[in-house]
Amino acid sequence: xxxxxxxxxxxxxxxxxxxxxxxxxxxxxxxxxxxxxxxxxxxxxxxxxxxxxxxxxxxxxxxxxxxxxxxxxxxxxxxxxxxxxxxxxxxxxxxxxxxxxxxxxxxxxxxxxxxxxxxxxxxxxxxxxxxxxxxxxxxxxxxxxxxxxxxxxxxxxxxxxxxxxxxxxxxxxxxxxxxxxxxxxxxxxxxxxxxxxxxxxxxxxxxxxxxxxxxxxxxxxxxxxxxxxxxxxxxxxxxxxxxxxxxxxxxxxxxxxxxxxxxxxxxxxxxxxxxxxxxxxxxxxxxxxxxxxxxxxxxxxxxxxxxxxxxxxxxxxxxxxxxxxxxxxxxxxxxxxxxxxxxxxxxxxxxxxxxxxxxxxxxxxxxxxxxxxxxxxxxxxxxxxxxxxxxxxxxxxxxxxxxxxxxxxxxxxxxxxxxxxxxxxxxxxxxxxxxx
Length: 436
Ligand SMILES: Nc1ncnc2c1ncn2[C@@H]1O[C@H](COP(=O)(O)OP(=O)(O)O)[C@@H](O)[C@H]1O
Ligand SMILES: [Mg+2]
Known about the structure:
With about 425 residues, the protein is α/β, with parallel strands linked by helices. It has 4 domains: about 1-95; about 100-155, CATH 2.40.50.140; about 165-345, Rossmann fold (3-Layer(aba) Sandwich); about 350-420, Helicase, Ruva Protein, domain 3 (Orthogonal Bundle). The chain has helices spanning about 1-10, 15-95, 160-165, 185-200, 200-205, 225-235, 255-270, 280-285, 295-310, 330-335, 350-360, 375-380, 385-400, 410-420; strands spanning about 100-110, 115-120, 125, 140-145, 150-155, 170, 215-220, 240-245, 275-280, 320-325, 340-345. The strands form 2 sheets. A 6-stranded mixed sheet has the order 6-8-9-10-7-11. The longest helix has about 80 residues, at about 15-95. The N and C termini lie far apart (about 140 Å). The site of magnesium ion has 5 residues, from helix 6.
């Protein structure tokens, strides 16, 4: 501007001034126009910028929402994992806790002092945990003991041995009376002694007689004693508990007797029940001067068995069936009336019996018309039911080997010879066989 003023000072003529004025106004107008344009441009630019910023803002907001959702998800995940960790920790702690000793309460002195016997044998005077109700502390109850102080930690609910549950038959056996050849008299007798008192106790009360408490089946091996007991189990609706005498002989002192006691207790609880003691001679052998502690343990078991049998009412719902091959060595105490009052002999089958047994075992076999079972029954004198079963099976094997359609009489004859050779099983008077 100072330049222009200086120019103005230098200029003299009005013409020149006029020119100058015009150029100046032109210049000013141009400048104005220019700044007007600039302002417009700037406005557009700014609008543009605001637009981009707004969209960026939206974008960021969306991102924020997203990451907040992520955060929430991760937080719940974290809680879940923490819970998992806690669970695993407590589990691993549980695994690391020392085992508890199992014991039996012998005597309760007062609410805090109790005499227990640990499973290893010795007795201890211990305290009981305050969390146990003192009224629940009873002699005979099973409990767990702390390893160091042997204090009673908790009481175990039911002291029945798992082994006892194993002895209880849940499914009844498949054998029926129809599977037994011969032995009609014995079947009748056992039905009368076992089934009838369970099904029709009124008959006995009316007449006033006491039904037998238990029956003992005895006879040579392989004559169908176990089979008969199974058939009884099949035919009655009673609970059936099967135990083999040798299972009652236990390793530790008093264990066998406890098993017997629990067996009888469960039988009573679940009555009507039939207890079947197979091979009873394992515990019922007559008491002699016992020399070893093992003998004495067997005798204790026997005494518990006797006490158990005395503990039932005759008309009660528990029946006992015993089976043995060795009645000669059984203790007299078992055989006296009031225990096994019915003693049923299952002899070696006679010819008629053998024929019936053969008929039972050949029911399902395909046989030629020439097979004469009467003759086979005649030829198998001295054989027991198990032998006859084996003969039928062997005859079948011969037929298979020769690729025949049906079993012939010759197959049976060969089978008789083979079974006779395998073992000298068929002693007519078998006194001393322990095992069947
Ligand atoms: N009277 C019988 N009728 C049919 N099969 C019999 C007879 N006696 C024995 N058996 C056969 O012999 C097998 C063994 O009999 P089992 O009852 O176990 O003999 P044990 O008298 O020694 O207990 C039975 O599974 C059965 O196949
Ligand atoms: Mg048997």
